[in-house]
């Protein structure tokens, strides 16, 4: 069965973390792809094989690995925690071009997006690298597409910032609500403490009045000749 009828040497590329594909890019075919008996095109078969072998490569200890499939080379490069994949036409790409592209992908895509990973930004970088490898010149349409992608990327980041801010506001509301509950509990306990102190003072005052009255009675009974006060009647 024939391979892809495409002049460009690079036909597919992706970046994965383990077996999860973060971003991918495949140039538009120059000619109609060939349909296989299973209903998938030859191009889809090659891409499916490349993605399937990511799992096999992730279990290897090798940094680089290549295999040949239907006139194409499927090339893998590992720079933890990422795996970079490039599929090239064997006769067009050779061995040097995929190797150079893989190293450029590792050097330019993930380091720029390590702090705040963005699928849109990573895909845009991947597209630029693959198109450069295929010798595609920047046209007015592609420039506009890149500008739109950049605007979309900024919008996504702004939305994420708004979402994070919303979480902060919700957290602040929760804290304010908790402060309100704490204030009500404090007022209740303060009233209880004030009431307790008032009763303690009332008891002390009552005891002092009783002591004073007893002292006066004792003094008067002494002067008046006894408890029944016989001399003072």
TrEMBL record:
One of its GO terms (biological process) is protein transport. It comes from the Eukaryota. One of its GO terms (cellular component) is membrane. SUPFAM superfamilies: SNARE fusion complex. Keywords: Coiled coil, Membrane, Protein transport, Transmembrane, Transmembrane helix, Transport. The chain crosses the membrane at residues 204-229. Residues 140-200 form the V-SNARE coiled-coil homology domain. This is V-SNARE coiled-coil homology domain-containing protein. It comes from Perkinsus olseni (Perkinsus atlanticus).
């Amino acid at each position: 069965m024939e391979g892809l009828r495409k002049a460009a040497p690079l036909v597919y590329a992706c970046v994965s973390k383990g077996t999860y594909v973060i971003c991918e890019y495949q140039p538009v075919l120059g000619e109609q792809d060939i349909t296989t008996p299973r209903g998938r095109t030859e191009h889809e078969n090659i891409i499916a094989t490349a993605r399937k072998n990511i799992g096999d490569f992730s279990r290897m200890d090798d940094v680089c690995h290549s295999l040949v499939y239907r006139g194409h080379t499927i090339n893998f490069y590992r720079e933890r925690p990422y795996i970079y994949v490039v599929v090239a036409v064997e006769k067009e790409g050779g061995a040097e071009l995929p190797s150079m592209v893989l190293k450029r992908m590792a050097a330019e895509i993930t380091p720029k997006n390590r702090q705040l990973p963005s699928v849109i930004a990573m895909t845009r970088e991947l597209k630029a690298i693959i198109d450069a490898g295929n010798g595609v010149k920047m046209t007015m349409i592609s420039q506009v597409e890149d500008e739109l992608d950049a605007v979309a990327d900024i919008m996504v980041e702004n939305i994420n910032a708004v979402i994070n801010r919303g979480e902060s506001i919700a957290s602040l509301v929760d804290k304010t609500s908790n402060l309100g509950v704490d204030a009500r509990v404090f007022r209740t306990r303060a009233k209880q403490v004030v009431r307790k102190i008032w009763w303690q003072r009332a008891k002390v005052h009552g005891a002092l009045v009783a002591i004073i009255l007893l002292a006066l009675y004792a003094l008067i009974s002494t002067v008046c000749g006894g408890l029944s006060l016989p001399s003072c009647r």
